[in-house]
Amino acid sequence: MRPGEPMPPRKTNALGTEVERSFEAPARALEEGVELAVRGEKRLIGKKPFRLAEEYWANLGPGLVTGASDDDPSGIGTYSQAGAQYGFRLIWLSLFMYPFMSTVQEMCARIGLVSGRGLAANIRAHFPRRALYLATFLLFFANTLNIAADLGAMAASTRLLLPGAHLELLVIFFALISLLLQIFTTYARYAKLLKYLALALLSYVFVAFIVVHDWGQVFAHLIVPSLTFTKGEIFLVAAILGTTISPYLFFWQTSQEVEEGILHGETSIAKRRHDISPQGIGRMRVDVWSGMLVSEVIAFFIFAACAGTLFAAGNTHIATAAQAAAALKPFGELAYLVFALGIVGTGLLAIPVLAGSTAYAIAESLGWKYGLYRKLKQAYAFYGVIIISMAVGVIANFMHLDPIRGLIWAAVANGVIAPVILFFVVKLSGDRRVMGGYTNGALANAIGWLTVFLMGLSGVAAIVSLFW
User: Fold this and answer.
1) Which one, of 216, 208, 218, 213, lies nearest residue 89 by Cα?
2) 188-237: per-residue pLDDT in tens?
3) Torsion of Cα atoms, 249 then 255 then 259 then 265, to 10°
4) What are the residue boundaries of the structural domains of the chain, listed by start?
5) Is the pTM of this model over 0.85?
6) For residues 450 and 100, what is the distance between their CA atoms, to the nearest angstrom?
7) How far, CA to CA in Å, does 248 sit from each of 205, 293, 347, 360?
8) CATH fit for domain 60-467, picks 1.20.1740.10, 2.70.98.70, 3.90.220.20, 3.40.50.1100
9) Are strands 10-12 and 18-20 parallel, antiparallel or unpaired?
10) What separation, in Å, do the N-terminal and C-terminal C-alpha atoms of the chain show?
11) Given CA atoms 310, 311, 313, 314 in this order, what sign does their dihedral have?
């Protein structure tokens, strides 16, 4: 070590001894992992399955909510459209995308856990701010379009169940519910509510098992990719990538890891950084990979349900989630009802995540006070961004903007933002100055950079396909 060079950060490991994180030997890490595994096995011995399931559910949190919010009404509309137009041919994407989105979200969660602050705050501290400000503006644009589309889809789905309801009043109703929950509910109660709202996604599993009969064909297309490179298919694939690996998920995941730490008494950045442990990283990985698995499993079942019914019946002109629900009615009243209710449930989960991620990004970029754990009077600007996002989403519905055109532009905006933000995510999570001994492994790094390339390619394809 050269004179004047700062000491590498030190950390207390699971055995209670200090190690220099920047020079931790692989043998020590392996020994520590074996020790943790042995302890875990001992804890599992004699426990009943119900107790194990209860503990597993208790450990799920930000990762589950983030993964579940990925299947928002806009995403449901995209997957429904793919299934209706191309049958089972694109269902392989639900399997293909899983390792990419899981690796990226784990990087985001690890950045939040180890650094003790959100993604935008980390980018602001370590990179030039111009790129961050541009990305944040585009994020606000894309998220607001998504909020507008989601509110419209929830209102339209409710009208399928209550035909006499007024569309605009339903839009206002759902926007107000979301705002009241975010602003006037404690974070602990709000986080628990979001977690249970994720169960709404099970409705799509139920629908698929009601309407799909040829599961052999489904799994054959899941394993064997198929792509024809037509203009419509290329844009739809780009839209699927954009709705699956979305920039708003990166900001939300990182900030929610910080909020969870604050909820457990880690009220300062220094304390959050000090309290990080291998066990905490392990619990985070289980949470994140489980949440992303839920997201892709649900996408798979939405694909299957619409391909097995709408495509098979020649009903390929599906543009929104509400249209998909209505089109399912001839295939069974129960399937139609459950699909429509699922749209409302997933919207209640996803809209706060969309608005909240925008608020985190803008507040951290500009150095404002932020956090759902704060009261309104403690973070006026942070909550102001949430209110503005929701208000613009409501106004867009009153203007009767074409929801499909809105989603197209949101997909294009996400295609531009995603590679830029992903570049920051991979760089930060691989930087020892930020992450200490918790940097990316070689495989994670490779998957991260490949994801940057794929999302960049997807963004270019989406833009080119508009003028093709």
Assistant:
1) 218
2) 777 778 878 887 888 889 888 888 888 999 999 999 988 887 888 888 88
3) 140
4) 60-467
5) no
6) 8
7) 25, 18, 15, 10
8) 1.20.1740.10
9) antiparallel
10) 57
11) positive
- Among 27-41, 77-91, 109-123, 270-284, which is the least confidently predicted range? 27-41
Cα separation values, 121 from 106, 367, 424, Å: 18, 8, 12
Residue entry with tokens 């996803």: 350
What's the rounded Cα separation, in Å, for the pair 227 and 238? 12
Predicted pLDDT of residue 170: 94
What pLDDT score does 273 carry? Answer: 66
The tokens describing 16, both together, are: 């209670």
For 108, the token pair is 């985001």
One-letter amino acid of 327: A
Query: Nearest 10 degrees: CA dihedral of 36, 41, 46, 47?
Result: 70
Q: Which of 257, 243, 235, 310 is nearest to 464 (CA)?
A: 235
432 pLDDT tier (thresholds 50, 70, 90): very high
Integer-rounded Cα Rg, in Å, for the chain is 22
Beta-carbon contacts of residue 230 (< 8 Å; ≥ 6 apart): none
At 251 the pLDDT is 93
Alpha helices in 60-128 (DSSP H): 62-69, 73-86, 93-96, 98-115, 119-126
Higher pLDDT, 198 or 21: 198
Other Cβ atoms closer than 10 A to 229: 8
Tokens of 9: 């950060």
SS3 19: strand
Contact between residue 298 and residue 93 where contact means Cβ atoms under 8 Å apart:
no
Instruction: Tell me the three state secondary structure of residue 37.
Output: helix
Low-confidence winner among 70-74, 275-279, 309-313 (lowest mean pLDDT): 275-279
| The two structure tokens encoding residue 450 | 């490949």
Cα–Cα distance between 429 and 410 in angstroms, integer?
Answer: 27
DSSP 134: H
Mean pLDDT (whole number) for 356-366: 93
Query: Above 70 in pLDDT, residue 27?
Result: no
- Residue 365 contacts residue 125 (beta carbons within 8 Å): no
For 24, residues 6+ apart whose C-beta sits below 8 A from its C-beta are 437
Return mean pLDDT, the chain.
82
